[in-house]
Amino acid sequence: MINDHISDMLARIHNAYLVHKKSLTMPYTKMVKAVADVMLQEKYLAGVEEIEEKGKHKTLKLTLSYKHDQPAISSLKRISKPGVRVYRPLHSFKPVLSGLGISILSTSKGVMSDRSAKQNRVGGEVLAELW
After folding, report:
1. Alpha-carbon torsion angle 69, 6, 82, 52, nearest 10
2. In terms of pTM, does the model score above 0.85?
3. Using 50, 70 and 90 to split pLDDT, how confident is the model at 84?
4. Distance between CA 74 and CA 22 in Å, rounded?
5. Which of 56, 65, 71, 109 has its CA at 20 to 30 Å from residue 41's CA atom?
């Protein structure tokens, strides 16, 4: 049983990049799918696919992205955890790694990157940072 699906997702992605896998699967949740879609939009993943088999739970297949045999993600960090939630208003966004990374936020308008949140002028819960 998994209590924190986002932390599980980040750990699986990190471990898959360490052994240079091309893809990985994980249990499907709407939040994990939304975070994966943001990572896909920001080019940290090459593909996201829902897999539904008859009589089984849905799974999510992530295709990892590499640039010149180097992983697209060098570090993943979970910010807001189930025990300690971290919220950030619009005016207190800071660039991640001098603008080379992104923060993934859960806002009132959905899950999005910090750049999209600035454009939409919304703040929210900081789920993770990656670069």
Report:
1. -170
2. yes
3. very high
4. 16
5. 56
